[in-house]
Design the sequence.
């Protein structure tokens, strides 16, 4: 029953994709030569006017271009022409660095907040006011103080990734079942051992859910941040290709951003599953 | 007696009441038990049984009074007092072995891994879970989970076992088997046990002393019933003992009517001298009176502290 459902769903997905690609193809197809023009003039006007071809690339154009990128992802022809793989590498590296820094701060701090009602109350106003700030609003301040665009981007990732992890860790730690805490108390388990062997595993699913939300936000923000700071990265690539008027590359970049985001999300979903135990 | 193993002395528990002031769950409560005894506390929901047990465990603090165990006033929780929780409270991320070993390691942190494992194994075997060491709680039935809870509590060889309605979530059949198990283990190891139950038959089968608690707020210990059934009793023919029904009726009567009216019926109640009641078979008398068996109760008022 479930396998047949899965098979039918897969079939449906393929069908939807086919309809989408078909519509896209039809919508961007050239409508043949429009007028007989002086060839010199036609060249100046470009294919859009002369052949009725849409300025929007079709699926075939994008496919061909994508294949080119896949064949040589790591070429480097100077600052404005680097392979897609290199640009992605920069973005992923920035995201991971900012993210890991955020993990290193958010999880211990979340533990502190979750375990100490005093710290929870004391830090609450700061968290409440800092959390809703758009990470990009920090950018000028970061550029001014850090004076390095790449590190500024990492800082922006750090600041946007920290909140979901911090709040989830604090919540997960504070919500550990009273009974488990009481087991640890009756067994006279010390604070450190209790934190690592009772609270951490009990709160792990909630913490990882926070980490999953954070990586999603970090990946959303890196594109915007790199558009602002420029230089390298998939966000810069999108902006650069827009300036080059290469809509094909822009579409490819959009697709690749989605793909990487999905992979990052799935990795954390898998990790969450590993630490979740039914009762 | 002066060598009470457990002595609860004048404890009170009060909570701030709605609209100012305080409500007392109980005031000036005295209760004591001897070494190796099995005590059951029976009373309606909300009368403060869990509160008493948690204070005894050290998980909760009394607003007033002290608890003395083995000659020492208790301060917080202790590895000497193991608790079996109502909802088993196993760690779902640990296996059966992991759960028991966690307790063993807490008691003997310096033991080697093999020694901890061997010790835990012994207690897993004791509760009849040999072969399930590597299962996680999610793979166990309710009864098996509670067995793990018992193994975990016993593995630290506590001076006292405290059980808060340990079997209330189980089906009747499983409950019966576990009661047999607990009784066997407690007799074998001469364990001092304090248990909360709302199951009259469970109390009759397991307990040496049954503490009857009146309804709250302001609950008091109305009576201490000494179990007149022989020490080697079997659950299946409990009801054949001539004192079984008198005992059962006495408890049910208390729960149905006297638990509500006790405080007004007995105005000169002294919490330090809780009546100790021991049912006995009626003397064969010629002139039959209308009074039936429960009247044979001989209430001897003794100082219980
Ligand atoms: N934190 C609390 N605040 C106020 N009242 C409480 C609190 N905890 C327990 N109580 C009250 O104490 C009484 C006794 O509770 P409990 O010991 O759990 O009863 P039992 O185990 O006999 O059912 C209940 O009436 C309950 O409402
Ligand atoms: Mg209770």
Sequence:
């Amino acid at each position: 029953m479930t396998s047949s459902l899965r098979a039918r769903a897969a079939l449906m997905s393929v069908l939807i994709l086919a309809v989408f690609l078909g519509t896209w193809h039809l919508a961007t197809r050239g409508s043949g030569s429009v007028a007989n023009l002086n060839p010199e003039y036609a060249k100046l006007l470009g294919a859009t006017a002369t052949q009725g071809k849409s300025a929007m690339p079709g699926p075939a154009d994008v496919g061909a271009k994508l294949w080119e990128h896949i064949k040589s992802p790591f070429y480097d022809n100077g600052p404005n022409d680097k392979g897609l793989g290199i640009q992605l590498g920069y973005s992923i590296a920035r995201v991971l660095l900012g993210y890991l820094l955020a993990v290193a701060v958010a999880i211990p701090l979340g533990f502190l907040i979750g375990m100490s009602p005093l710290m929870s109350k004391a830090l609450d106003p700061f968290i409440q006011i800092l959390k809703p700030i758009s990470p990009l609003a920090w950018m000028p301040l970061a550029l001014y103080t850090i004076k390095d665009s790449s590190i500024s981007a990492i800082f922006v990732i750090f600041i946007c990734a920290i909140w979901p992890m911090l709040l989830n860790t604090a919540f997960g730690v504070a919500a550990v079942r009273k009974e488990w805490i009481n087991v640890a108390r009756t067994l006279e388990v010390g604070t450190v051992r209790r934190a690592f062997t009772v609270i951490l595993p009990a709160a792990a699913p909630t913490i990882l859910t926070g980490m999953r939300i954070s990586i999603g936000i970090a990946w959303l923000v890196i594109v915007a941040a790199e558009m602002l700071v420029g230089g390298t990265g998939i966000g810069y690539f999108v902006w650069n290709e827009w300036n080059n008027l290469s809509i094909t590359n822009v579409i490819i970049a959009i697709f690749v951003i989605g793909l990487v985001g999905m992979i990052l999300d799935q990795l954390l979903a898998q990790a969450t599953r590993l630490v979740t135990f039914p009762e | 007696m002066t060598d009470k193993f457990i002595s609860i002395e004048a404890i009170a528990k009060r909570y701030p009441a709605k609209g100012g002031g305080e409500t007392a769950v109980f005031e000036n409560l005295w209760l004591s038990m001897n070494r190796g005894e099995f005590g059951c506390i029976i009373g309606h929901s909300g009368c403060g049984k869990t509160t008493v047990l948690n204070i005894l465990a050290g998980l909760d603090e009394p607003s007033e009074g002290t608890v003395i165990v083995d000659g020492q006033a208790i301060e917080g929780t202790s590895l000497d007092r193991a608790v079996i929780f109502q909802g088993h409270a196993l760690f779902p991320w640990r296996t059966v072995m992991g759960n028991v070993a966690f307790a063993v390691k807490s008691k003997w942190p310096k033991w080697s891994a093999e020694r901890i494992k061997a010790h835990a194994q012994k207690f897993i075997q004791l509760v009849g879970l040999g072969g399930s060491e590597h299962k996680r709680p999610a793979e166990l039935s309710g009864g098996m989970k509670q067995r793990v809870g018992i193994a975990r509590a016993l593995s630290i060889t506590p001076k006292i076992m405290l059980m808060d309605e340990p079997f209330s979530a189980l089906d009747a059949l499983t409950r019966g088997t576990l009661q047999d198990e607990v009784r066997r283990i407690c007799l074998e190891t001469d364990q001092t046990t304090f248990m909360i139950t709302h199951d009259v038959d469970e109390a009759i089968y397991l307990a040496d002393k049954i503490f009857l608690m009146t309804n709250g707020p302001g609950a008091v210990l109305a009576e201490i019933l000494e179990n007149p059934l022989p020490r080697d009793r079997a659950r299946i023919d409990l009801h054949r003992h001539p004192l079984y029904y008198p005992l059962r009726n006495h408890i049910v009567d208390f729960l149905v009517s006297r638990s509500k009216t006790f405080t007004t019926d007995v105005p000169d109640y002294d919490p330090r001298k809780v009546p100790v009641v021991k049912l006995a078979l009626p003397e064969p008398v010629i002139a039959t009176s209308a009074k039936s068996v429960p009247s044979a109760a001989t209430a001897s008022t003794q100082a219980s502290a």
The interface with chain B takes residues 177, 179-180, 182-183, 185-189, 197-198, 201-202, 204, 275, 277-279 of chain A (CB under 8 Å).
